What does this fold into?
Amino acid sequence: MLTSRRHRPGHGGYPCPRVEVLLRSLQPVQQLNYQSLLAQFNQLQQGVASSMTKCAGDGNLDLLVDGKDLAGWQEFSKKGGKSSWYDLNYDGLTDSRDWDIILKNFWRRCK
Ligand SMILES: [Ca+2]
Ligand SMILES: [Ca+2]
It folds into this structure.
């Protein structure tokens, strides 16, 4: 299921009413293609989420928590500190709590 922090229940399961209106205007074959792509996207999203939970602190998904993750956190936190690959606790912010997750798991190998 497609989810995001912007998802609002009660709008047909789509992220926003505007998207829902656009989807209704698609031809049947386009709707089938959209549903197929959405299913593939959701599978990929679940795979990424699964790999991320398997290796806490690993923002770059190389299955090792090291200096590269600290450098990545610094890069993304400088860009406004919003959600990023280094938002490790999924609260929508790349902040000191995520930094602490990296430090807590530093040198962890998940291979
Ligand atoms: Ca890493
Ligand atoms: Ca966070």
Remarks:
- Residues 1-12 have pLDDT under 50 and may be disordered.
- The longest helix spans residues 28-54.
- The chain is about 50% helix and 0% strand.
- Residues 58, 60, 62, 64-66, 68-69 surround calcium ion (ligand 1) (CB under 6 Å).
